[in-house]
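Key result, reporting period 2: structure in, sequence out.
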């Protein structure tokens, strides 16, 4: 029925017979994605906050609980009604209003993440090439272009081109590697963890490790909030569009159980392994290192280095295509359907990801915080409005027939037609508040917990505005009835 109204198969609600993802599928869904290079880089930044290793581990595990709750709650609409992210947004912002949050997730966040992921993958490629061609690392000497060395720029360009080509092709073939990649990732990570424990002389020295030259002198409790905010910000983009995954769930309970196990178990392993590898490697090599690639580069076993780098490269390509550049391409197409095709969208998004110079996001331990806080500031408000609308305004009810309105049906009485003004106002106000810390020094604390600030601000403002409008509408209706 909805297909006749002009909707393609990607937008149609999934029926029971089309939903093929069970608990096992959701359990493996995020297990591999957790172990990406930016996540390890972020942990390096967490260690440099000055917290003890055990506190960093606990903070990461607590963070996973917040992430799981966010993913599950925002995924209920998808699992209950079988709708994708695009339609979930429409149910919140209206058929016209969905363009702004779609742009924030599909373009701003996706392009920024694409650039960062491509650069981190390029760093692995530099190491890999250097192992077989040492002279490559000396190309250009100290010369820098756009703030980056010649070898790094060449590796980035090559890896960027490869990712663009995969994006243009749709990345479908890479999804077939997921089942192989996830086990490979855990083989590599567990192996590196065992090595780090032995190299450091046991767990004792690792857990007793005290960082020197911490980047900030902050309250330990606030440091926990900073870590939780940063981890949630990592998942802000997939969390906002999680309906694209949960629409395939056999039941809501399935996605709730599967995602909980995936994120909790995955982060328990990640929390321990990341801290142990980074600190164990630092102790063994007599340095303070926050980039896992540099530790792998120092290993004297060529086979291990090559295996680890290849796994990180394949994982980066896979997650970058499906999670970043493909959504960006589709979103640009949705915004300008008459001028931009999917392939043009991919090329435009890719070009932007290059000129923003993503290597600036990993210059030091603080850089990753700035990036994650910015992403959190952008997408926190969208998540706040979506959850407030679904649970407290519509009480988990969506009228699919009204949601899938025909393009020619300009029925302003339709709940989902046009633009949800209150949602827009709440999103913009929260966006300004959550970004304020980036520009006003005295509000720096806001940027450190930007996702939570944006989420709570949008959530609260939206509910207040909606209740105010509903109250005014009820009062007007009552007056009119009394006058009659």
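The corresponding designed sequence is given below.
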């Amino acid at each position: 029925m909805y297909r006749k109204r002009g909707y393609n198969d990607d937008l149609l609600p999934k029926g029971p017979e089309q939903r093929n993802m069970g608990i096992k599928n959701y359990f493996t869904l995020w297990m591999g994605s957790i172990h990406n290079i930016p996540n390890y880089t972020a942990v390096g930044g967490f260690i440099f906050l000055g917290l003890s290793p055990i506190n960093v581990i606990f903070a990461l595990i607590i963070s996973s609980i917040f992430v799981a709750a966010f993913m599950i709650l925002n995924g209920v609409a998808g699992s209950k009604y079988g709708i994708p992210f695009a339609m979930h947004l429409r149910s919140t912002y209206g058929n016209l209003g969905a363009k702004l949050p779609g742009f924030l997730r599909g373009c701003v966040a996706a392009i920024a993440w694409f650039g960062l992921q491509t650069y981190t993958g390029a760093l692995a490629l530099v190491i890999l090439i250097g192992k077989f061609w040492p002279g490559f690392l000396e190309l250009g000497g100290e010369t820098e272009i756009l703030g980056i060395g010649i070898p790094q720029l060449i590796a980035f360009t090559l890896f960027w081109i490869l990712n663009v080509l995969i994006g243009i092709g749709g990345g479908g073939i890479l999804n077939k590697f997921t089942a192989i990649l996830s086990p490979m990732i855990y083989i590599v990570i567990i192996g590196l963890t065992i090595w780090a424990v032995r190299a450091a002389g046991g767990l004792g020295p690792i857990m007793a490790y005290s960082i020197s030259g911490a980047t900030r002198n902050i309250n330990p409790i606030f440091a926990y909030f900073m870590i939780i905010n940063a981890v949630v910000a990592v998942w802000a983009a997939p969390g906002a569009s999680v309906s694209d995954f949960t629409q395939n769930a056999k039941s809501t309970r399935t996605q709730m159980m599967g995602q909980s196990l995936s994120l909790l178990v995955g982060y328990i392993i990640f929390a321990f392994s990341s801290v142990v590898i980074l600190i164990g490697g630092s102790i063994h090599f007599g340095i303070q290192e926050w980039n896992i690639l540099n530790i792998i580069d120092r290993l004297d076993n060529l086979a291990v280095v090559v295996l680890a780098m290849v796994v990180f490269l394949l994982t980066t390509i896979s997650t970058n295509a499906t999670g970043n550049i493909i959504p960006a391409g589709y979103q640009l197409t949705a915004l300008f359907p008459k001028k931009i095709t999917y392939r043009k969208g991919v090329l435009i998004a890719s070009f932007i990801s290059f000129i923003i110079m993503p290597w600036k996001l990993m210059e030091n331990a603080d850089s990753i915080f700035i990036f994650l806080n910015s992403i959190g500031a952008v997408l926190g408000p969208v998540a706040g409005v979506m959850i407030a609308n679904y649970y407290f305004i519509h009480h988990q009810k969506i009228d699919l027939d009204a949601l899938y309105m025909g393009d020619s049906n300009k029925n302003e009485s339709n709940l989902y037609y046009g633009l949800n003004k209150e949602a827009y106002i709440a999103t913009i106000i929260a966006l300004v508040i959550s970004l304020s810390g980036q520009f006003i020094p005295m509000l720096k604390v806001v940027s450190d917990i930007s996702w939570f600030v944006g989420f709570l601000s949008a959530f609260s403002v939206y509910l207040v505005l909606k209740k105010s409008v509903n109250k005014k509408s009820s009062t007007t209706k009552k007056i009119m009835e009394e006058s009659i």
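Strands lie at 144-145, 148-149. The longest strand covers residues 144-145. This case is discussed further under Risks and Mitigation.
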